[in-house]
Each structure stands twice: as structure tokens, then as C-alpha cells.
Write a structure and sequence with these properties.
The complex is a heterodimer of chains A (154) and B (407). Chain A is α+β, with helices and mostly antiparallel strands. Chain A contains two helices and five strands. Chain A has one domain: GSPII I/J protein-like (Pantoate--beta-alanine Ligase, Chain: A,domain 2, 2-Layer Sandwich), CATH 3.30.1300. Chain A starts with 8 loop residues before the first helix and ends in a 6-residue tail after the last strand. Chain B is of the alpha/beta class. Chain B has two domains: 114 residues, no CATH class; 220 residues, no CATH class. In chain B, a hairpin with a 3-residue loop joins strand 2 and strand 3. Classes of the chains: A alpha+beta (154), B alpha/beta (407).
Chain lengths: 154, 407
């Protein structure tokens, strides 16, 4: 059998190596991109959870500030000094704790609302109290100085 | 194209794709960072806002406590540094409020300012609270207006007379004084019509015959003023006999008919606040409340028909005899003399020229020549501050709908 020279043989070998290098580069790039995408999803979820927790905390304060007429929890808070409730939003469980404390002034109370939740990626989604949980606290005060509302004339 | 060239192009394309992916990743990361910062800022802003609200609530509770214990000392100072830009004109009295220290402000610096208009609404204060966090550059501010028990509603005017007494009146020289009752235009001696109202009203007339009724002759004997001085104005007295005013326990019927629920201490405190602000008849706005403890003759013309005043000669000023108003002096508004139900303290008094109403809880014997009492319907404007109907003016209350917030 005659050995024929193959001018393209060397070139074909190089193509394989190049393809491998390209695949490796592409793989590295994709790994970075996927890692970034994962991190992005987690970070976006975390931001969303934090925003939801903030809204829940503010709603709770507004509700308790409005008094028993609008917020049934306010009477329970006034009697026991503490309330606790849970809410689920977009698959995340939020635990809302409200604590009423007395101050040096008779008609003034301190109010702290703490919202805890399981951050995205945490393995125990039903235990917001687990280590590494997300937590957000808002503190304010409530005084009993009334609003003068003129009685409606008949 | 040769094979090696095809490989180089593949490599180039892959490199470009990786670069493109990196750029997309970079921009995504930047976007995420912004979102993260935005979320954090939202939390910091909410914490600052709630801390400012907590400061406001604390301030309201402290103000309520202050007014329940020492009501007339809260406004004894003025600090111009505490006036916000929109409230820097002369009528605004401002002060800061030091909050009680026993609470966690979460690293925020708090500033609470209290402001009020001492001329137009001394019974309403604007409370402004600000919380600032130096570390995360967040700040929150809230404000609320509150009614303060610095005055009270005065009620409807029911004694439309230029002179209101609780005893008898007579002239030193018959026909030498001038009384102008309300005319059809509700103003005295306007020249637009005859007097149709009351020139002098006394809440007490001695029942000389002891029959329990006040006759016309008893009325005229008590209010012994020449008809020429009355200029057609009527005299008004109770129809039945009432107990004589008791200097040992002088009642406040005249004061109440004029000032309603506003107490002498409140009028004095507002007068002092206006003096503290440097208000006078020459400033803009002009001073509207004058409380004087001085027995010296009053020679300052004050008040205009658009901005009437109230002048109160206190019991201290009237300790021996109430200060006269000098003959050339004109006062537009209300003059009250605290004679403590003793006619002698108002004897030989000169009124100058008062357009509005003069009121005193005693008689006014030997009224001096040239005294002029002219009715002016809006004489109570200086202390008729707007109060909502049925409000309990003795306690601090928030003004409905006045709450505002800002970042």
C-alpha cells in the first residue's frame, strides 16, 4: 500500500485541539455565567423577600397604630403586650412578632415589629427561626394623644 | 478557506461569545447591586421614618404632660434657630424639644421643633420631628399639628355694647363723655345711621326698693349718664335683682362674657409670648394682646379696624386704681380692667377713645370728661381664635388631617 501524503492531516489535528480549547473556554465562561445567574436569582429573591418583609412590618405598625377599629390585633397587643402571626407570600413564610413596651411617660408606648423569614436557598423553608434566617426590625412609639374629630351634625 | 483559518475563526468566535457573556454578566451584576442597594435603602428609609414618627409621638406625649402640669411655661422661650424656613416671619414662635433619653433610636440623631403663630393661632402648634442616620445617610421627617390648651373658645358675642360693667356708671361732668352704640351697620357712630343698640350694659344694678325687680328709675339711677352722651343708645340691665358683686370673691361673669373659656393666665402668657417675639404696634404683623401689670397711665395708641387688640389691666395694675388711658390715646379692640369688683379702683377713670368694648367687673364712678366708648363689632378678633365646635380645649389634641411625612 502506497503511503500518500496527507496535506490536511496536520490541519485536522489542530482543529480537534482548537475545538477542545474552545469547548473548555466556553465551559469556563458558561460556568461563570451560570454561577452569576444563580447568584442573581438568589440575590433578586433575597431583595424581594426583604421588600416583602418591610411591607409587612410597615403594614403591621400602621394597623396597630390605627387601633382596634381597624386592626383586631391591637386589642390583643394592648392586653398581652405581644402578638405573633405568620403569613406566606410567594412561597416564603414570614413570622411577624409585635411587642408593646411601656416608657417613662404614662401615655406613651414603645412598639417593635420584627419580621423573620427563610432566605432564598436556605434548606429549611418552614422554620424561619433557623440560623441564617432573614430578619428585619422596625421600632417606633405610640402616644395616646387623640385626634379631634368633629362629630357629624344631624 | 484553509482548515487552520477555520480553527482560528472558531476560537475567535468563542472568545467573543465569552466576552459577550462576561459583559452581560457584568451588567447583570451591576443591576443586581443597584437593586440590592435599593432594597437596603428602603429598609433604612423606613427605619428613619419610623424613628422620626417615634420622636413625634414622644414629643406629643411630653407636650401633653407639660400642659397638664405647667401649662403656661411651655412657650416661655423662643429660639429662632428652630424655625423652619417657611416659619421664620415675626409671628412664629419656635423652640426645640429635648426628648426623654430612655429609648433606642437605632443610631439616629433626632431633632424635634415646635412652632406656633402667636398672633393668629397661638392655640395650634406645629410639631416637626426629624431622624437622621449619619452612617447610611438616611433621614425621615414627619410633622403634625396639635391643639394646645393655651386659650379656649370664646363663644358667641352676646353683649353688643361699647361699655360692659358690673355696677353703676356716672359722669364726673354731665354730658362730657361719648357713647356710640351699634347702628344698623353694626358699628358705632359711623354716621350712616342712628344708634339702635345698647350704649351701656351693666350686669348688676342695686335693687333700691328691695322688691326684687329692677325698675326704669333704678336703672337710670345706676347708669346716670346724660342722654346727650348716649347719643340715642339704650341702657341694658337685668330685669330682676341680683346679688351685689363681692370683692372678697369677685366672680368672673364679665370676664367670661368676653373671653369665654380663655383664662387670665392664658391671655397673660400669650401677651408675654408676643412681647418675647418683639411684636409691637409697629411690626408686621402687629401685636394683638397686651397684658399690663403696670399702674402707669396708658398712652400708646394700638389696634386698627383690620387688626384690633385686647388690652388687659391686671389686678396688679389695678391694685389701688386702674391705669387711666390718656385722652389722646386711641385703642381699637377690647379693654378689660380687673377691678376685683371694687368701684373705687375704677373711679375717675379716663377711657381715651376706645373703639370696641370696655369691660370691668365693677361700676365706673366719676367717668372723666372726654372719655369715648365707640362700638366696633369685630373688637374680639384679637382673641377669637378658630376652634372646632365642641372641642375640649383643656387638653392636647391632634389636628385632624395635619400629619405629613417626608424622606
Amino acid at each position: 500500500m502506497n503511503k500518500r501524503s496527507n496535506p490536511g492531516g496536520q490541519a485536522q489535528g489542530f482543529t480537534l485541539i482548537e475545538a477542545l480549547v474552545a469547548a473548555a473556554l466556553l465551559g469556563l465562561g458558561m460556568m461563570g455565567a451560570i454561577s452569576l445567574a444563580m447568584h442573581s436569582i438568589q440575590s433578586a429573591g433575597s431583595s424581594r423577600q426583604q421588600s416583602t418583609a418591610l411591607t409587612l412590618a410597615q403594614n403591621t405598625i400602621d394597623c396597630l397604630r390605627s387601633g382596634p377599629a381597624l386592626c383586631t390585633d391591637s386589642s390583643a397587643l394592648a392586653s398581652t403586650g405581644q402578638t405573633q402571626e405568620t403569613q406566606t407570600w410567594s412561597g416564603t413564610l414570614y413570622q411577624i412578632n409585635s411587642t408593646l413596651s411601656s416608657t417613662s411617660l404614662t401615655h406613651l408606648h414603645g412598639l417593635q415589629v420584627t419580621v423573620k423569614w427563610q432566605p432564598t436557598g436556605n434548606s429549611s423553608p418552614h422554620n424561619p427561626m433557623a440560623p441564617g434566617s432573614g430578619e428585619l426590625a422596625l421600632s417606633t412609639r405610640l402616644s395616646s394623644v387623640p385626634v379631634f374629630v368633629q362629630a357629624a351634625m344631624p | 478557506m484553509k482548515a487552520p483559518d477555520r480553527g482560528a475563526i472558531t476560537l475567535l468566535m468563542v472568545t467573543l461569545l465569552v466576552l459577550l457573556a462576561s459583559m452581560v454578566g457584568l451588567f447583570t451584576a451591576r443591576s443586581l447591586l443597584s437593586e440590592r442597594l435599593s432594597a437596603n435603602n428602603g429598609v433604612w428609609a423606613a427605619q428613619a421614618q419610623q424613628t422620626a414618627q417615634a420622636a413625634l409621638e414622644t414629643a406629643l406625649a411630653q407636650i401633653e404632660q407639660s400642659f397638664s402640669t405647667t401649662p403656661n411655661t411651655f412657650w416661655s422661650t423662643h429660639d429662632p434657630q428652630q424655625c423652619l424656613t417657611a416659619y421664620s416671619s415675626m409671628e412664629w414662635q419656635c423652640r426645640s424639644l429635648q426628648l426623654d433619653a430612655g429609648w433606642d433610636t437605632q443610631g439616629h440623631t433626632l431633632l424635634v421643633r415646635v412652632m406656633r403663630d402667636v398672633v393668629n393661632s397661638p392655640h395650634v402648634a406645629l410639631v416637626h420631628a426629624q431622624a437622621r442616620h449619619a452612617g447610611n445617610h438616611s433621614s425621615g421627617q414627619v410633622q403634625q399639628s396639635v391643639y394646645l390648651p393655651t386659650a379656649g373658645p370664646i363663644g358667641a358675642a352676646n353683649k353688643a355694647t361699647p361699655l360692659l360693667t358690673q355696677g353703676c356708671v356716672n359722669e364726673a361732668v354731665a354730658g362730657s363723655t361719648r357713647f356710640c352704640a351699634a347702628d344698623a351697620n353694626q358699628n358705632g357712630c359711623s354716621g350712616k345711621g342712628q344708634a339702635i343698640g345698647t350704649a351701656i350694659q351693666s350686669l348688676y344694678v342695686p335693687d333700691l326698693d328691695g322688691n326684687g325687680l329692677i325698675s326704669t328709675s333704678e336703672q337710670q339711677a345706676c347708669l346716670k349718664v346724660n342722654p346727650g352722651s348716649l347719643q340715642g343708645g339704650a341702657l341694658a340691665t337685668p330685669a330682676t335683682a341680683l346679688p351685689a358683686p363681692n370683692p372678697a370673691a369677685c366672680d368672673s361673669a364679665v370676664w367670661t362674657s368676653l373671653f369665654g373659656a380663655t383664662t387670665p393666665a392664658q391671655i397673660q402668657a400669650i401677651s408675654e409670648a408676643q412681647a418675647l417675639k418683639g411684636l409691637s404696634s409697629q411690626t408686621q404683623p402687629a401685636r394683638s394682646v397686651y397684658w399690663t401689670d403696670s399702674p402707669a397711665e396708658w398712652s400708646q395708641s394700638v389696634g386698627t379696624t383690620s387688626a384690633p387688640v385686647v388690652v388687659v389691666f391686671s389686678a396688679l395694675a389695678c391694685a389701688s386704681q386702674c391705669p387711666r388711658i390718656s385722652p389722646s390715646t386711641q385703642i381699637v379692640g377690647t379693654v378689660f380692667m380687673d377691678t376685683q369688683c371694687q368701684d373705687s379702683r375704677a373711679a375717675q377713670w379716663h377711657s381715651g377713645s376706645v373703639s370696641g368694648q370696655v369691660a370691668l367687673p365693677s361700676g365706673l364712678p366719676n367717668l372723666q370728661s372726654g372719655s369715648q366708648f365707640l362700638w366696633f363689632a369685630d373688637h374680639r378678633k384679637a382673641f377669637d381664635w378658630p376652634w372646632p365646635v365642641n372641642i375640649d380645649a383643656t387638653r392636647v389634641q391632634r389636628v385632624c388631617g395635619s400629619w405629613k411625612s417626608g424622606g
